[in-house]
Amino acid sequence: MKHPIFAANWKLNHGPADADAFLRQFLAYYPRTQDRTVIFFPPALTLHAVHLALKDRTDIKVGVQNIHSEDYGAFTGENSAAIARGAGAKYALIGHSERRHIFGESDEQAGKKLAAAVRAGLTPVLCVGETLAQREAGDTVTVVIRQLRAGLSTAEPAQVAGFIVAYEPVWAIGTGKTATPSDATTVHLAIREELRTLAGERAEAVPILYGGSVNCGNAESLLAAPEVNGLLVGGASLDADSWSGIVRTWATMASPLERRR
Ligand code: PGA
Fold first, then answer.
1. How many angstroms separate the CA atoms of 18 and 11, rounded?
2. How far is CA 103 from CA 106, 202, 203, in A?
3. Domains, the chain, ordered by start
4. CA distances (Å), 71 to each of 78, 107, 115, in order?
5. Which of 23-27, 31-35, 177-181 shows the highest mean pLDDT?
6. Which ligand 1 atom is nearest residue 237's CA?
7. Three-class secondary structure assignment of the chain
8. Does ligand 1 lie within 6 Å of residue 173's CB atom?
9. Residue 2: which pLDDT band, with cuts at 50, 70 and 90?
10. Contact partners, residue 44, CB within 8 Å, separation at least 6
11. Per residue in 144-194, pLDDT tens?
12. How many CB atoms are closer than 10 A to CB 183?
């Protein structure tokens, strides 16, 4: 992997004015660099403002947190992948655990949304992860692989190389509990193996991100773990100081990620 991905999932936080203030501060801390990719996932109504604020920073990308599975029609309150693309998104989170567990989205819907993202030219970031009960029952890998297969079921093997996968254990999201680097590696290796089965050698190109209570204190050890190709960060991405601390861990880490793979 040439360079890691740092993705900020703002969830239901930061309207356009807050985002503007955040970016003013963050951009001052974060000079243009080619050795990593930074992606912001703002709320849908903030997305275009973030896109405009980053117009001189083509090194930083924007994504949408959720899309509808249909391209257009009578779906009041929804956003399509094409609308997100028109507003400046290049990426789409698919199957985030809050969509699955709060809004009842199924594996099948994740697959349909992934297909919608691909139709509109957005790069899907397919999120998978087990609940605490599933983990305690020893079902972590089974659950993650089931979600992965269902999410990718609508894609051709050749397309998979252009996707991103994020492993986010549900019990670690917003709880302050983080998977250890070795826990993350075990699941990331299983994901990589499954991707190889689905897409052959092309699977090596798919970045696998870790997410769940990542912060300035644990980002470096997680990023150093084998098969962890980037981080998806919620709470700690909301403050420009803490987010830039996480993004800058990469510059202070001694050896390139590719040597650890
Ligand atoms: P968290 O959220 O960093 O606040 O745990 C991560 C996510 O839900 O993407």
1. 14
2. 9, 33, 30
3. 5-260 (3.20.20.70)
4. 10, 19, 10
5. 23-27
6. 3
7. CCCCEEEEECCCCCCHHHHHHHHHHHHHHCCCCCCCEEEEECCHHHHHHHHHHCCCCCCEEEEECCCCCCCCCCCCCCCCHHHHHHCCCCEEEECCHHHHHCCCCCHHHHHHHHHHHHHCCCEEEEEECCCHHHHHCCCHHHHHHHHHHHHHCCCCHHHHCCCEEEECCHHHCCCCCCCCHHHHHHHHHHHHHHHHHHHHHHHHHCCEEEECCCCCCCHHHHHHCCCCCEEEECHHHCCHHHHHHHHHHHHHCCCCHHHHC
8. yes
9. low
10. 64, 65, 66, 79, 84, 87
11. 999 999 999 999 999 999 999 999 999 999 888 889 999 999 999 999 999
12. 17
Q: Is 221 exposed, middle or buried (0-12, 13-18, 19+ CB in 10 A)?
A: middle
Residue 214, both tokens:
């990542």
- Sole residue written with tokens 């190109």: 205
The answer to whether 37 touches 231, Cβ cutoff 8 Å, is no
Residue 174's pLDDT is what?
A: 87
Rg (CA), the chain: 17
Amino acid at 98: E
The answer to whether residue 51 is catalytic is no
Q: How far apart are alpha carbons 152 and 176 in whole angstroms?
A: 30
From the alpha carbon of 213, which atom of ligand 1 is closest? 5
Distance 55 CA to ligand 1 centre (A): 26
- Whether residue 66 has its Cβ less than 6 Å from ligand 1: no
How far apart are the CA of 197 and the centre of ligand 1, in A? 29
